[in-house]
Design goal:
The structure is a single chain. A five-stranded mixed β-sheet has the order 1-2-3-4-5, with helices on both faces. It has helices at residues 2-7, 10-19, 23-28, 36-54, 114-142, 151-158, 181-185, 206-218, and strands at residues 60-63, 81-85, 97-106, 167-177, 197-203. Helix 5 (114-142) packs across helix 6. The protein is built from eight helices and five strands, in the order ααααβββααβαβα. It has one domain (2-225).
């Protein structure tokens, strides 16, 4: 259910399944096919929950941008993982923080260097992409398409004039198969950066794990769609 809900809500599955049964067809139309997009977005979703639970979870507002995709087999646009931390909301605070992570996944052997690529993407977030992401998300919120942050909460980080300054924190995250993690972690910068944090998440048998997770998500039908049959005997 958790992964499926990042792409399509229970209510949407229930509503559309009436028009286009069965419900599994509706879910399949939202989730990516096996391949690089599925691998990358599994890493992003894993990071989404990691970031939300390690940074003031009672005050962090997550933005599940995967359900805003126009093409299920293309990567979701803009910054990978964004949370807004608003500890005193609706009162603006000098502690209001936007958390942004660039995520790269590596599930099989190859030349791809996830830490290096995550750092490069993190730099793009810092210099330009996060700003565009927040504006895009606010536009989607105005149309009612987003789940999570409100228009007012997003505007807090877009138009802070006259309010306490906000904080921006960035992470470069590598989600790596456990059999490859030692070799990849050795490639991390020796000196920490003041601008971002490098995070390496090790997942046992990453490829098999994300494929199994999405297989489960494909059949994660809301209970209300398939109510139990009554025994009339």
């Amino acid at each position: 259910m958790v992964i499926r809900r990042c792409y399509i809500s229970d209510d949407k599955v229930s509503t559309q399944a009436i028009l286009y049964p069965p419900a599994t067809n509706v879910i399949a139309a939202a989730l990516p096919d096996p391949g690089s997009v599925m691998s990358g977005e599994f890493g992003e979703i894993l990071t989404y929950f990691y970031q939300g639970t390690t940074a003031l979870p009672t005050a962090a507002v997550g933005l599940r941008r995967w359900h805003l995709k126009q093409d299920r087999n293309k990567a979701a646009p803009y910054s990978d993982v964004v949370h807004l931390v608003l500890p005193d909301w609706p009162t603006p605070s000098a502690m209001d923080t936007v958390l942004c992570s660039e995520v790269k996944a590596k599930s099989t052997k190859g030349k791809f260097e996830p830490i290096k690529k995550a750092i490069e993407g993190c730099e793009t977030d810092r210099t330009s992409r996060l700003a565009g992401t927040l504006v895009w998300l606010r536009e989607r919120a105005i149309t009612g398409a987003t789940e999570g942050a409100s228009v007012a909460q997003l505007s807090r980080f877009i138009e802070p004039a006259g309010l306490p300054p906000t904080i921006k924190k960035f992470q470069a995250v590598a989600v790596v198969c456990d059999s490859l993690v030692a070799a990849e972690a050795a490639k991390a910068p020796a000196t920490p950066s003041p601008d971002y944090e490098v995070v390496v998440i090790s997942v046992p048998k990453l490829k098999a794990t994300y494929e199994a997770a999405y297989t489960t998500a494909m059949s994660a039908v809301p209970p209300a769609v398939n109510p139990p049959k009554l025994n009339t005997k």
